[in-house]
């Protein structure tokens, strides 16, 4: 298909093009969700040239170290950093959250390339290995409410998931996960960890919305992209672009719904 550049859009109802980094991980699932959102075309991004003309980008869940190594080998890290610094919206899920974070702990020896831009510290594999994967129902943040259809909570799937341990003043907390007493003991009494945030044009979730049937997070990101385009258009015409930001909200906290017999990651070592 012929890509449309962001500055050709004229309204919040127009078609937008969202790329999904397709080096490794759950990129097909993201594309399937965006196919349900009217006015959105989703494309696989495998090389730096694929970033041209995109209105937004998703960095999916997967194995963050492997994804980073492939991106470095194919020379994509500088282009991805340029894309991020250019102000276009980016959404990172799970491994994508680690990519966007300014700081990450618990990495493998030698670390990995980070794109940065999200003022937070992430603990890699906070919730444990693959065998420790679990689901939780979390309250719907205000950003998802315009797309509300059904319950007031959403299904969050945590698979080798990171957690956000610290956030800077520019980061808006969207969702928190309430820790069990056993988890609190491992984390020196911390009652909860942040699992979804937004900062300007960056959105990040430590769970996998793409692995559920709920498309509200994808609709929310598409709306972020549309509002970003509309804001740029208004700025170019000398008008205020203050309406480009989504409504703010306080942090949300859920009841602990992790199975009681679930092994607690890090029980031998303090984080």
UniProtKB/TrEMBL annotation:
Record CDD domains: GATase1_PB
Reactions catalysed: L-glutamine + H2O = L-glutamate + NH4(+)
Pfam families: SNO
UniProt feature, compositional bias: Low complexity: 238-258
EC number(s) given by UniProt: 3.5.1.2
Keywords of this entry: Glutamine amidotransferase, Hydrolase, Lyase
InterPro entries referenced in this protein's UniProt entry, alphabetically: Class_I_gatase-like, PdxT/SNO, PdxT/SNO_CS
Segments for region (Disordered): 232-271
Lineage top rank: taxon: Eukaryota
Record family assignment: Belongs to the glutaminase PdxT/SNO family.
Protein known as: glutaminase
Gene source species: Coccomyxa viridis
């Amino acid at each position: 298909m012929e890509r449309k550049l962001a500055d050709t859009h004229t309204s919040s109802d127009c078609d937008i093009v969202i790329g999904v980094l397709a080096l490794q991980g759950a990129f097909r699932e993201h594309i399937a969700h965006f196919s349900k959102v009217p006015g959105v075309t989703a494309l696989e991004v495998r090389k730096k040239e694929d970033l041209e003309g995109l209105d937004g980008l998703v960095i999916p869940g997967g194995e963050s170290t492997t994804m980073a190594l492939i991106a470095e080998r194919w020379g994509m890290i500088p282009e991805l950093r340029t894309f991020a610094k250019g102000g276009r919206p980016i959404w990172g899920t799970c491994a994508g959250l680690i990519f966007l974070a300014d700081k990450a702990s618990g990495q493998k020896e030698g670390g990995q390339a980070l794109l940065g831009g999200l003022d937070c510290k992430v603990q890699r594999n906070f919730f444990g290995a693959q065998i420790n994967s679990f689901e939780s129902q979390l309250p719907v943040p205000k950003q998802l409410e315009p797309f509300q259809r059904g319950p007031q909570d959403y299904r969050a799937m945590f698979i080798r998931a990171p957690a956000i341990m610290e956030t800077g003043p520019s980061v808006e907390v969207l969702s928190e996960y309430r820790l069990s007493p056993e988890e609190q003991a491992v984390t020196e009494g911390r009652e909860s960890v942040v699992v979804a945030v937004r900062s300007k044009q960056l959105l990040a979730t430590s769970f996998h919305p793409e692995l559920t049937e709920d498309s509200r997070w994808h609709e929310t990101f598409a709306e972020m992209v549309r509002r970003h385009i509309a804001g740029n258009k208004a700025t170019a015409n000398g008008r205020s672009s203050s309406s480009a930001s989504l409504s703010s909200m306080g942090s949300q906290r859920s009841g602990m719904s992790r199975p009681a017999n679930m092994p607690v990651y890090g029980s031998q070592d303090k984080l």
